[in-house]
Every structure is written in structure tokens, then in C-alpha cells.
Specification:
The protein is mainly beta. It contains 5 helices and 33 strands.
Length: 451
């Protein structure tokens, strides 16, 4: 700082020092772009940014290069870096082009391309099925996430029915004492304690009782939903308080959001029609955070609830964010069996499919057909056969980007008389037999044993 002159000397190469660059001069040569380099795309959700990375730099024989970016043929303004951060507004597949141009001649250039897939939160679907085959309406909410807009109503685990005074139904203990669909199940769902809702997990975003590709929302995700409808961050962070302005009204049943948070009570019969308690996957010791709606409040209460309380449950769909490509991590497994002609058999789901992000869509195929069985979208399949034979069933689990994995099972179908027309008794006498209208094999002669 106190010298007007400049020192020139040698410096240890391990020293961290500043750096300047100088442009290559072409002189009488014409610049030639030897490579456009390379870029990598990926997948993201609508309204979530993705970074298109530079996996290889462009190169020119002399002079400088200028980058420009195009999405589906349209130039993006003021984008000159080797990488691009871009946010898709609509679902679809986009072609991303990075053009490397000679800085003195924009018409001399080379391009490299990649693809970005943008998913809508609900992937255009309006319904999802749980592993028990119950269907739930789903909707993209203002937080750009896909939520169930009905409460979970699985009956294959410990549960209580809303506004039903029957005892807790413990699966495997008292064999579903009040199992079967109850009067309020579709509109109000079923109540679960936290550990059952979470499927025994203690981790945030646990799948729990949710369908594959869905999970129990965190406390933070509930806040994001609330703020998307106008609650401030300061209000959202309030604890044991009625927060916001009219977000409760908007998110409750008949509100203008379509979220349809019903006042389904808790512990079976407590405050049905007055309060709605909804679990999050965020715990606090022997408690877990929940949301509390009430009929005479326009706001929403956030607090912690004893984990042994039976409360309602909603699920939120997983998303594939920047740098993550949807993939089925396991197709799960199914179980076949044997059955008589004209008798129904259920090909059971013995293990659900899993996906690293996004949702899972099931489809079913029979005997290696490439055409799926129409209308069969559940984790299990019930079929009745009118002909004997061996049938191979394939359950395909498909991720949001179309990749899939499959699992297979075999069903053997017997005719009532197994193709026989006679049977012989232990005394050696032969009798004619016939398949009757009840789909059973009967003797059509009377027994005549004399021993």
C-alpha cells in the first residue's frame, strides 16, 4: 500500500494468491469452436428450481466464448453462465440448450442439449389407494404440494372409528371386533395413536399408514401449507396458540381451499363435530406436534399431543427435487395360490412397492400380456376364472418418470371335477361324476358299497 512500484519475484506454489485471466488473441486466425461441452438435466417439481449443471466446458481455438440458454427454443434473457438455475411453471418435458458462441461472431456457435422433466405435485391424478384398497381424493394445494383431502381410514391396524363408542380394535388381538366400514369412515376417516400412524417409525416423513410414495407431513410442512394460505411465518411458529387469520376456515370442510379438514374429533367419540386433531411426523419426547381445528375458530392451533391419543391422519405426496431422479427401489411382492373355477381369489400384496421420491402407480397384467387389466390400480387384485389353467400375474409399480419394476405370482385354477368323469370307491365300484351349477363336483349315481 505504500509503494508506487511493482515487485516481481518467485512465490511458493503452495501459496494461496489472487488470479487474473487474459483473453486469447486470434490475430489472423479464425476462431474455431472444437466442442460445445456438455450439460446435465434431471427432474424437479413444478415451481421448484433445478440446476442444469455444466459437465464439460466449451472450447475455442482462440478468442472468447459467450454462453446463452434456450428452453424449448426460446432464449432466456441475461443467462450467460456455464450453468443454469431454472424454475418450470408447468408440468412437462423441456429441451434445454446451451449455446457457445464466438464472442466476435454470434453466428459461429455450437450447442449441447439435455432434458428436464417437471412433475406436477399430483401428476394429474385425483385419487390414490392405500394398501388396504381404500381410495382417497387428492389435490394440489397452494404450497405446490399434493395432499390427501380425506382422512386415512385403514382398518388393518389398531384403530378407533370416528364417533363410534366401540372399544379399540387391536389387529390380531380381538380380531377386528368392529371391523368393516363404519358409518363415518369415508367422510371422517379413522383415529390412530401416533406410533401406529407412523408404522412404528420415529423419523420425520415416515410412510407409516400412507400409500407408497406418500408420507406423514412434518410440522414444518404443515406450517408451509398454512403460510401458503396467508399465515405469516411468525404466526406459523406460534406454539399452543390459535394462529393466523382465517386459515382454519379456509382449510376446514367447505372452506375455499378444498383441503377439507373435517372436525372428526379424537379418541373415537371425543368432540366429534367440534374439533379435528391431525398428526404430524414431528415428535417431542412422549408427544408429537399436531394441528387442531375447531368449529368456532377461524384460526388453527399448533401444539404437542400425547402420542397415545387417537387422532386423524393425512398424508402428503413425496416430491423429486433437484438432482433426484424417481426410481422404484423395490417392486414389493405378491402371493398367488389355487382356486376352483368360478370362485374368486385375491392375489395378495405381501410387501408394498417402494420409491425413492414421487409416487407409485400400480397396474396389473395377466399371462405376459402388454395390456394392463382395466381399472385395477390397487396393491392387490381379486379375480374369478371361468376356465381351469395356470395364470401368471404381474404387478407393475411405476414411478413418476415412467420407470418401473415388476413382481409376479401364479394362480392355479382347477375345474370342479379336475377333468375326470368317474370316481372309484374303496370297494372298487365306479361312479359317474359331473360338475353341477353350484361349481362343485357331485356323484350322479348313488353309492353302492356293500362292505
Amino acid at each position: 500500500n505504500n509503494y508506487a512500484t511493482i515487485n516481481r519475484y518467485i512465490l511458493d506454489k503452495n501459496t494461496y494468491a489472487s488470479l487474473r485471466c487474459i483473453k486469447a488473441t486470434c490475430y489472423d486466425a479464425k476462431p474455431v469452436i472444437s466442442t460445445a461441452g456438455s450439460i446435465s438435466g434431471g427432474s424437479t417439481a413444478v415451481n421448484y428450481a433445478i440446476k442444469i449443471k455444466s459437465t464439460g466446458a466449451a472450447a475455442v481455438s482462440c478468442g472468447g466464448l459467450v454462453y446463452s440458454w434456450y428452453v424449448d427454443g426460446s432464449l432466456l434473457a441475461n443467462q450467460r453462465a456455464a450453468t443454469l438455475t431454472w424454475t418450470p411453471k408447468y408440468a412437462g418435458t423441456y429441451e434445454i440448450v446451451r449455446r457457445a458462441s464466438v464472442d466476435t461472431d454470434p453466428m459461429t456457435y455450437k450447442e449441447t442439449k439435455t432434458t428436464v422433466i417437471a412433475y406436477s405435485p399430483c401428476m394429474g391424478r385425483t385419487v390414490v389407494y392405500d394398501d388396504q384398497g381404500n381410495n382417497y381424493n387428492i389435490k394440489e394445494m397452494a404450497d405446490n404440494r399434493c395432499w390427501m383431502i380425506q382422512n386415512i381410514r385403514r382398518r388393518d391396524v389398531n384403530h378407533r372409528h370416528a364417533n363410534n363408542g366401540a372399544a379399540v380394535d387391536n389387529d390380531g388381538t380381538n380380531k377386528h371386533l368392529h371391523d368393516g366400514v363404519q358409518a363415518n369412515d369415508v367422510n371422517h376417516g379413522i383415529h390412530y395413536i401416533w406410533s401406529v400412524a407412523m408404522g412404528g417409525s420415529a423419523s420425520e416423513k415416515a410412510q407409516g399408514l400412507c400409500p407408497p410414495g406418500w408420507y406423514i407431513p412434518t410440522d414444518a410442512e404443515w406450517k408451509t401449507l398454512e403460510m401458503a394460505y396467508g399465515m405469516t411465518s411468525g404466526q406459523a411458529n406460534g406454539n399452543n396458540a390459535w394462529r393466523g387469520y382465517n386459515q382454519g376456515t379456509r382449510l376446514k370442510a367447505n372452506g375455499n381451499s378444498g383441503f377439507n379438514a373435517t372436525l372428526s374429533g379424537y379418541n373415537g367419540t371425543s368432540y366429534f363435530g367440534v374439533r379435528g386433531y391431525y398428526w404430524s411426523s414431528t415428535q417431542s419426547g412422549s408427544y408429537a406436534y399436531y394441528r387442531y381445528f375447531q368449529n368456532n375458530y377461524a384460526t388453527i392451533n399448533r401444539y404437542i399431543l400425547d402420542k397415545n391419543t387417537y387422532a386423524s391422519l393425512r398424508c402428503i405426496r413425496s416430491m423429486c427435487y433437484e438432482g433426484t431422479t424417481a426410481a422404484i427401489t423395490s417392486p414389493g411382492s405378491i402371493q398367488g395360490g389355487s382356486i376352483g373355477v368360478n370362485y374368486p381369489i385375491t392375489i395378495k400384496s405381501t410387501k408394498t412397492a417402494t420409491v425413492n421420491c414421487g409416487g407409485v402407480a400400480y397396474s396389473w397384467y395377466m399371462n405376459n400380456s402388454t395390456t394392463p387389466i382395466a381399472g385395477e390400480l390397487k396393491a392387490f387384485l381379486t379375480r374369478t376364472f371361468d376356465k381351469p389353467g395356470v395364470y401368471v400375474f404381474t404387478r407393475r409399480a411405476t414411478a413418476d418418470n415412467g420407470t418401473y419394476a415388476e413382481t409376479k405370482a401364479t394362480v392355479t385354477v382347477y375345474s370342479a371335477c379336475s377333468g375326470l368323469s368317474t370316481v372309484i370307491d374303496e370297494q372298487g365300484k365306479e361312479y359317474s361324476i359331473k360338475e353341477m351349477a353350484d361349481n362343485r363336483c357331485w356323484m350322479i349315481q348313488n353309492l353302492r358299497r356293500t362292505d
